């Protein structure tokens, strides 16, 4: 389908979310819409999908100017949308989810599941989706759930597919297969609008790139453009994609893991005898495909998950099977993987969140009574020092953008005396500007001679931050290598090929 | 097009923003309207007047008159019975006499509100921590028994006796609350089920206590406990001969309000409570021990319920009987709605308690003067709570503007956990 957006403008009060945006997508083309969080990508897609009415501008499908008033109309006109957060019923089968709302019926008004199932098989085969029509959605991995969403769109004869941040929730392998699927969709003549803020993906999949910033188209590029060019277009200034590190002298072992075994929620071994040391003045980065025990290992160090056997020492203290409180008191700074679940109280103020794990420490409280003046002074200082963008220190954290929410956590952890900074997926879901900022903070912390353990499923991040890279596979360390090691070698380690340590 | 004068406009913006207080006031009005509808549809005189609507030309006017008379009389009786009776007050001011009659309505409202404030604050603290204490009534019963026992079976000077009796009530309620708390913290038993069922255990214990020798009123065969010594009673504020029941208990309630305000807004432990209530996962990750918090909250919530129980006994009947806090007097259940109406905040709970007490006390006056059943007060109370619980509906009805972010949150989320 040929899509043309002409001068789309959408205002929310005084805020202009989309300012005369022009965009053209050719049939059989993957067009990437690149922009930071809050640049206006989602608004534009909601306009296109009939969820919002534009204040100005036209939408033309195959040369015909149309008005789309609601999502149903968008679907009828051949537009399919795969949302970032899936809109599936977890307890329904794939078939039931796909037909939901558009059930094909037989003569007696019964749902014709056989017909639907056959359609799904046919589509699944045609685009290599590999989805079992009878599987229950909640039992499927995230990557397959996403394919169910794609199937759902295809079953309504979508000719234009909108993928909204499709890779945010996927593992690297799942991303690879998604790319293959997107390519085959385009090859069959469908148009794909691929929304993302990740530069690598854009370069890998896009035929055309449109970059938007503050609601405006700021540039169009070919996939041959360098990541640096794309990043500076997106952020509006030059972005340092690699962080400069100063050489430091390595100190004592700060964190010692000895044959640590940790079980997951189902009682299966998730971490299977990990031994690892982190010394003062270095960043050890743990790479690996998600789900290979990294989450459980981090939780065990933070005192949030019992250690089945083995030993964890932080500084002088044995913190094996300690409580989170004891881990914090031993000097652990923790940037948790799921910041909104484990790291913040969204309904509480920025100031309160900045003292979330030190509410009793002087001067924030004395004899059981909180000293709100000290809490606010602390907040004022940290908001300035860590450049947290908020209307006020009393505003609820939920009113901050994702990047600024993460800055609140980083500020809180780095503003108290630590032995070790433990950060899990520290930049997941953040835009390029915030990633750059968080990376700088972590490296600066290390440059002061401190120790940090970083877990990330983004290989770029691991290589940018780590002084040593430990690769985890199926609960074990399959190798510890220098960050200069080739991606292929690390990729092999991530896939489980063992290698002797090279540190 | 002429523009509105700015002053008028800014006033309107202020009055029409759906702030929680504005919504609550409108919910109150809606509740009274619902009550009016109930009066109209259940009072025979009004119905008769409307039935004769087409019998004569004056019938419609007559029907309206009868309606306004009845609804007006009912609400007038409620007001004069719970707050002030203007002619009576005028009489007192002019003659300097009859002050007892003038002040009785207010005194009664305060008497009912006092234990309600205390128990509701306990329930509100639990709500703010994400915990449901449905067993406040049982905890108040145990507190009442413990306080009455201390006040009647031990004898000492008032300086010690009154505080010790109050403390006994706190201890009884706290003990009774600690059991569901411990069960939840260490076995995961759901507090709603356990606290709810615990009420029945306490009722059984109450009957057992008032019928067994050490505690039963000497020389009685009925289910009546011993009377508290006067040294343990909360004396009437204006003396025993004033005829006004309002007692020194209101100072206990005031102290509880101050304590709760400090606990929730200024104390470290209260910060832990609120953090746990808002996000248990983050609470755990930031080093808060959930088990400690659960047990502490139930100790405090139960302790306050127990205090309410002993305040109720020590300021009114001075003994407990088999019907203590059962049925309509079950302040532990009223407290749940009062806490929600007061948005779980100490000051809000004070206003909500006064409103509920006034509706109850005024309802009694209405029943005796107009024959409209006391249950109408319950209908109004329930309607108010329903409207407060659905702020969007209220805002729609009165065309209030959107509120600032986060100021209208649900009082509590889900079923704890």
Topology:
The complex is a heterodimer of chains A (503) and B (417).
Chain A: E1 3-12, E2 15-25, E3 30-34, H1 41-48, E4 56-61, E5 64-66, H2 71-76, E6 79-82, H3 94-99, H4 113-126, H5 142-155, E7 160-164, H6 172-187, E8 191-196, H7 199-205, E9 208-213, E10 216-221, H8 227-235, E11 253-263, E12 269-279, E13 283-287, H9 294-301, E14 307-314, E15 317-318, H10 324-329, E16 332-335, H11 339-343, H12 350-353, E17 365-366, E18 369-370, H13 372-385, H14 402-414, E19 420-424, H15 432-447, E20 451-455, H16 459-465, E21 468-473, E22 476-481, H17 487-494
Parallel strand pairs in A: 3-8, 3-9, 6-7, 7-8, 13-20, 13-21, 16-19, 19-20
Antiparallel strand pairs in A: 1-2, 1-4, 4-5, 9-10, 11-12, 11-14, 14-15, 17-18, 21-22
Helix pairs in contact in A: 14-15
Chain B: H1 6-16, H2 20-42, H3 44-51, H4 59-82, H5 86-95, H6 99-128, H7 136-153, H8 158-187, H9 191-211, H10 249-265, H11 268-278, H12 280-285, H13 290-315, H14 331-341, H15 346-370, H16 375-389, H17 391-397
Structure in words:
- The complex is a heterodimer of chains A (503) and B (417).
- Chain A has 17 helices and 22 strands.
- In chain A, strands 6-7-8-3-9-10 form a 6-stranded mixed beta sheet, with helices on both faces.
- Chain A has 2 domains: 233 residues, P-loop containing nucleotide triphosphate hydrolases (Rossmann fold), CATH 3.40.50; 242 residues, 3-Layer(aba) Sandwich (Rossmann fold).
- Chain A has 503 residues and is of the alpha/beta class.
- The longest helix of chain A has 16 residues.
- Chain B has 417 residues and is mostly helical.
- Chain B has a domain of 243 residues: Orthogonal Bundle (ABC transporter involved in vitamin B12 uptake, BtuC).
- Helix content of chain B is 70%, strand content 0%.
- In chain B, helix 2 runs antiparallel to helix 16 and helix 8 packs antiparallel against helix 13.
- Chain B is globular.
- The N terminus and C terminus of chain B are likely disordered.
